[in-house]
Design brief:
- It is found in: Secreted.
- Keywords: Repeat, Secreted, Signal.
- InterPro entries: Leu-rich_rpt, LRR_dom_sf, LRR_extensin-like_regulator.
- With 445 residues, the chain is an alpha/beta fold.
- It has a single domain, classed as Ribonuclease Inhibitor (Leucine-rich repeat, LRR (right-handed beta-alpha superhelix)).
- It has 9 helices and 22 strands.
- Strands 1-2-4-6-8-10-12-14-16-18-20-22 form a 12-stranded mixed sheet, sandwiched between helices. Strands 7-9-11-13-15-17-19-21 form an 8-stranded parallel sheet.
- The chain binds 2-acetamido-2-deoxy-beta-D-glucopyranose (5 copies).
- One 2-acetamido-2-deoxy-beta-D-glucopyranose binds next to loops.
- The site of one 2-acetamido-2-deoxy-beta-D-glucopyranose (NAG) has 3 residues, from loops.
Length: 445
């Protein structure tokens, strides 16, 4: 990992230094020689490029791979491939092949050994049947970014690319079951499969990939979220807008130090919210809106001291909106608590203040004395239904900051954890890494 980071860093630092002079002379020469007709006979066909025309043999081989891939592109509305000819393939200085960037692989030395390390087709809107036979044939590749193109089939076998660590194939036309070719790539640090046509279950070993970012949203994945979710080291995870069923695995509690944002939004998840969610002490976004989750909100949610966006709207949750959760607006960082479209019947006292300052939305519930609630018939119908048993809903796995304080405000004054000052952050839900991933275009953390 550290070696890989150096590689990338080098790549960006060297970038501006490599700019001038090198290749312009040969081009001038070719332009001048080109049209001369000797002795009235027609010009010979242009000499095809030889290995000696390139900076090194690796670049010549990459050139052949690129030219072969170019033939398969059926649509290039931005004429990006217009620049894909001649021996100067590296675009580090803006005068090479658009989308291709070079760096010296970590196991070689010297600038003369540089070759394609990064392919960035983000937004190119290419159409081609597949990137198989292309990406996998660039052996020194570290990054492949291809957001918003029309590539089909699936992810190629990249196990022969020892330096590869970032894969973004979001918003393409990839189909079939989960792309098992990514599973051996345990050293990936970025895996973005969102906005494709993938379907079926996701294999448990996806959570053994040592990635920081795992975006799976907006496909047609189904089945349960594998039990070993707690293995993933990812900081940002999106399961949103698939067809996942079953419960949120309680191994999620193992992500207590690492998970920063997670979106379960827009699936068919069911069962109780596991109390282990309350262990996610670094999480700023927890969103399980629009599912079929039921039971009360576990009191452990009162331990989510860093949570800013907490969305559970559009589920089958009921009971009281816990006072300990509403207090997170004062003793934590809670800015937006969305609980509309559930079956809650009462509120803790602090929750009222949150409604007033528009941080809590409880419309379309069953709270008798509040406006914009469900009809009494709907509420009566739900009340009669058999209820899930959620035995750990009352367990609080932390020391709540205000416990034992005479006045609620005194805990905030201890400075043990900085409470969110009102308006200190001007973040709407658009400002978060995972929420950005709900747009189909490119957004990096
Ligand atoms: C595409 O780009 C190349 C190189 O920039 C240029 O020579 C060519 O005329 C362009 N083609 C179209 C159709 O614009
Ligand atoms: C390229 O890498 C090879 C193998 O490590 C090394 O022997 C050679 O000196 C390098 N060439 C340059 C010009 O850096
Ligand atoms: C992943 O990285 C580790 C440590 O750098 C290395 O030993 C291992 O071979 C790598 N695995 C793969 C599949 O690249
Ligand atoms: C989680 O929080 C702790 C303490 O606030 C911090 O030291 C740690 O770096 C955080 N982890 C991540 C992944 O941000
Ligand atoms: C609060 O969260 C809900 C659900 O995620 C979202 O629809 C709404 O836009 C958010 N409000 C603000 C002010 O961020």
């Amino acid at each position: 990992m550290s070696c890989r980071s150096c590689y990338l860093l080098l790549f960006f630092f060297l970038f501006p230094l490599l700019i001038p002079a090198l290749g312009s002379k040969r081009e001038d020469l070719e332009i001048r020689i080109g049209p001369i007709v000797i002795g009235g006979s027609p010009a010979p066909p242009p000499r095809s490029l030889q290995p000696c025309d390139f900076e090194n043999m690796m670049q010549y081989k990459a050139y052949l791979v690129i030219q072969r891939f170019k033939q398969t592109i059926t649509c290039d509305p931005k004429n990006k491939t217009g620049s894909w000819s001649g021996p100067r393939i590296c675009n580090n200085d803006g005068r090479g092949y658009e989308g291709f960037y070079c760096e010296t692989p970590p196991n070689l030395h010297g600038p003369k050994n540089r070759t394609i390390a990064s392919v960035d087709f983000n937004g190119f809107t290419f159409v081609a049947p597949t990137v198989c036979g292309f990406v996998d044939q660039l052996p020194q590749l570290a990054l492949f970014h291809a957001n918003s193109n029309g590539f089909g089939t699936t992810v190629p076998d990249l196990t022969n690319l020892p330096f590869f660590y970032e894969l973004d194939v979001s918003n393409n036309k990839l189909t079939g079951g989960f792309p098992t070719n990514v599973l051996p790539l345990v050293n990936l640090s970025f895996l973005d499969l969102r906005y494709n046509g993938y379907n079926g279950p996701i294999p448990p070993s996806v959570f053994d990939i040592q990635t920081q970012v795992l975006f799976l949203n907006n496909n047609k994945f189904s089945g349960c979220i594998p039990y070993n979710l707690g293995n993933t080291p990812a900081n940002y995870i999106t399961f949103a807008f698939n067809m996942f069923t079953g419960p949120i695995p309680n191994s999620i509690g193992k992500l207590c130090n690492t998970l920063l944002e997670v979106l379960f939004l827009g699936n068919q998840l069911s069962g109780c919210l596991p109390f282990e969610i309350g262990l996610l002490k670094n999480a700023t976004v927890f969103d399980a809106g629009t599912n079929r989750l039921t039971g009360p909100i576990p009191l452990s949610f009162g331990c989510l001291r860093k949570v800013e966006q907490l969305n559970l709207a559009g589920n089958l949750l009921y009971g009281e909106v816990p006072e300990v959760v509403c207090r997170l607006a004062k003793y934590g960082h809670l800015m937006n608590l969305s609980l509309s479209d559930n079956y809650f019947t009462s509120l803790g006292p602090s929750c009222l203040e949150l409604i007033e300052c528009k941080k809590l939305d409880v419309r379309k519930n069953c709270i008798p004395w509040l406006p914009k609630q469900r009809s009494p018939e709907e509420c009566a119908w739900f009340l009669k239904r058999p209820k899930a048993s959620c035995p750990t809903a009352h367990y609080i796995p932390c020391h709540l900051p205000y416990e034992g304080a005479d006045q609620l405000d005194s805990a905030a004054a201890t400075g043990a954890d900085q409470p969110a000052a009102d308006g200190s952050k001007d973040r709407t839900s658009g400002g978060y890494t995972t929420y950005k991933a709900l747009n189909h275009d490119e957004k990096k953390p």
